Amino acid sequence: TRNGIDFAVADLSQAEFGRKEIRLAEHEMPGLMALRREYAEVYPLKGARISGSLHMTVQTAVLIETLVSLGAEVRWASCNIFSTQDHAAAAVVVGPHGTVEEPKGVPVFAWKGETLEEYWWTAEQMLTWPDGGGPNMILDDGGDATLLVHKGVQYEKAGVVPAASEDDPEEWQIVLETLRKSLAADSGKWTKIAEGIRGVTEETTTGVMRLYQLAAAGELLFPAINVNDAVTKSKFDNRYGIRHSLIDGINRGTDVLMGGKVAVICGYGDVGKGAAESLRGQGARIIVTEIDPICALQAAMDGYDVQVLEDVLDKADIVITTTGNKDVVRIEHMERMKHQAIVGNIGHFDNEIDMAGLQRYPGIQRINIKPQVDEWVFPDGHSILVLSEGRLLNLGNATGHPSFVMSNSFSNQVIAQVELFTKYQEYDKEVYRLPKVLDEKVARIHLEALGGKLTKLTKDQAEYIDVDVEGPYKPEHYRY
Ligand code: NAI
């Protein structure tokens, strides 16, 4: 705690560097800056206590400071152990008007290279406010903050945290341990926190999937807005963001030439499409794997070879998972890969690649090349290079998506926070999407910033295609 702000970051003295990059990012985030202007002196988030769990990058710093400028109090943690940019975290703690000695910003609990124990500690800190209360809003990416609250409530009701079983992943055992400690200290902590929460806004595909599962089971404790499925989020961030940041991660991690190499992209959803474009742009030869015939056909029509992973291991120089599913690259794949094949994941969680199986492999040797790059040498002498220990490599090996695309995503986040915070009584414990007019508003701002000029409908034309001159221009079922 310094100047009344509790925080845990790597090095506060990096704040000045962070502030410089935040200043540059602000210019590249016209959506967030427009929202700051639109709500100047209105403070729609006055009284909001937002606990945020989202990669603590420069772009997120601009998001946090936008929430603050709209009147919110904020506490933050990263949603991944490798994704924090330490200078951004420091700058957010110091704040635009503070100093290292006298920080005036936001409590942040995030540093690059957390252990899993530390990660879940930061999650609890982010959700625990110093006055003993909790947040009244959650801003989540991947659903870990929401999970902690829901599991906490569930185990408080049961009066006991179940013992982990042998087969549980290491991380789950840590979650259980975190909750066991909090249950021992205060048996009503999470129930109290959950009661105060008006809603959650969720950033990504994987977190949204978890929310729909909770809602379907009737277990969702508060309303949720699915930000991911705003068109200006998933069709932009997941695709064009990945197109930029995937090769950034591979380059910074390995500096290997991608042209001419064979790259396998597992999954051809929004992220997979961006990933394939990213590597094709470098001249790589792309193979796509899919389980969904529609996405597989799209890949084929886009000119990619659609194959199953087992059949292409002898050719693959680079294998990237983008599925949001588990056990996609397994040990029986990795042991057959080419020498120094690069293996990485860009989906939300690290279970797409069987890292546990790799660690257990008899006689395997791990050589750490540099942070977030490991060479795993099999007993026969051949090796593979695994990026970011199987966690999302665009944020682990590089700095994630650039500002302009995140401005789209985060504008939707801010709009969703304002909507749920101010109108929570109008929402049930379900998962909602933002109205299309707001999506179009976000697109309009960013198009303008790029110098694009929009054609205006005549009244006659609007009637002919049965839309309003001012939008929305498409029916809900339109797919873009
Ligand atoms: P999506 O649902 O559009 O695409 C996933 C695709 O993977 C689907 O087409 C599905 O059919 C396919 N798939 C599922 N299991 C498969 C398997 N075993 N083999 C091959 N293909 C399989 O989801 P989206 O939006 O593309 O997101 C994917 C993941 O990336 C999610 O975990 C999401 O949270 C994450 N994400 C990561 C970002 C980053 O910056 N690293 C940015 C945005 C999303």
TrEMBL record:
GO cellular component terms, A-Z: cytosol
Needed cofactors: NAD(+)
Enzyme category, top tier: hydrolase
GO MF entries: adenosylhomocysteinase activity
Membrane is among the record's keywords: no
Alphabetical keyword list: Cytoplasm, Hydrolase, NAD, One-carbon metabolism
Swiss-Prot/TrEMBL GO biological process terms: L-homocysteine biosynthetic process; one-carbon metabolic process; S-adenosylmethionine cycle
Broad class of where this protein is predominantly found: cytoplasm
Matches recorded under Gene3D superfamilies: Adenosylhomocysteinase-like (3.40.50.1480), NAD(P)-binding Rossmann-like Domain (3.40.50.720)
Record-linked CDD domains: SAHH (cd00401)
InterPro entries: Adenosylhomocyst_ase-like_sf, Adenosylhomocysteinase-like, Ado_hCys_hydrolase_NAD-bd, NAD(P)-bd_dom_sf, S-Ado-L-homoCys_hydrolase_CS
Pathway membership, UniProt: Amino-acid biosynthesis; L-homocysteine biosynthesis; L-homocysteine from S-adenosyl-L-homocysteine: step 1/1
SUPFAM superfamilies with a match to the protein in the record: Formate/glycerate dehydrogenase catalytic domain-like (SSF52283), NAD(P)-binding Rossmann-fold domains (SSF51735)
Subcellular location: Cytoplasm
Binding sites annotated in the UniProt record for substrate: 57, 141, 203, 233, 237
Co-factor: note: Binds 1 NAD(+) per subunit.
UniProt KW Hydrolase keyword: yes
Protein family according to the UniProt entry: Belongs to the adenosylhomocysteinase family.
Role of this protein: May play a key role in the regulation of the intracellular concentration of adenosylhomocysteine.
HAMAP family, per database record: AdoHcyase
UniProt protein name: Adenosylhomocysteinase
Source organism of this protein record: Saccharothrix variisporea
